[in-house]
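Q: Hi! First time doing this. I have a protein sequence and I read that you can turn it into a structure. Is that right? Here it is:
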Amino acid sequence: MVKYGVFLGCFIPFRYPCVEAAIRKVLDALGADYTILAGYTCCPEPMLTRLVDPDLWLMLAARNLALAEEQGVEELVVPCCGCYESLYEAEHALEDEEKRDQVNQVLSKLGHEYKGTVRVECLTGILYRDFMSKLEEMVSRPFRARVAIHYCCHLFRPRPGEDIWLKHDRSRDLVRSMGAEVLRYKLERFCCGFPAFQVDPEFSLRERLAPKLASMRAVGAECVVTACMACITQFERGQVMLRRYGMRYDMPVLHPVELVALAIGVEPGELGLEVHRSPVPQLVKRIYGS
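A: Yes, that's right. Below is the predicted 3D structure, encoded as structure tokens:
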């Protein structure tokens, strides 16, 4: 059996412990051999960090990968697409022996060495690739809702020779297999606006998030599902902030693993869904009656 290591990143432990609870519940139910990676730092953030200091970005990511190796991890499972992009692209960059030697010269001062033995994969990819048939058998309370999936930008980072749509399709099929009706909408590939929020919040909300939400609402979506923690933050915080412009959507936002946990019978009260800033508990009550 593969030894998985779960990289929780920054947002999950501090802002969305409900997602960590769902990860643990699902992996435990599947009987997966996993550990929560210990001692890690920020992935680091995949866009701004590389723009400011690409060497620092690679060094921090390499340290996280080295920690995974030291903790006996064969496959580093990443629930957040942003963290996935950063760590996967670091893994790919460090295939260059000269670059890896340079990085290891610095890591050695911290007592670490990256050997290139760990593989990075997103959580939805692992659930589909290794556990899909088992999960389908475990569905006891289907998630009966009309779902709009936000396929976050970072998800489109294929390995060499891999179909760019592979992770997109696996995410859709995973959600659908849990009983949800997955809807198509016009702005599926439209950015949620999180990167722009750091520079121009009004543009981010009014010109990116609001059109995205309007497109979802137009097809009758009852909730948003996305595997990026930054995107979840943008959808939840952004909906609250859009009220100042007279726009109200009240769209629940979930991570796919929360949906999976609910569908396989985990009680909502065990997940702590009330930490969401969108009406997730109300949606769950409508679907399950409690």
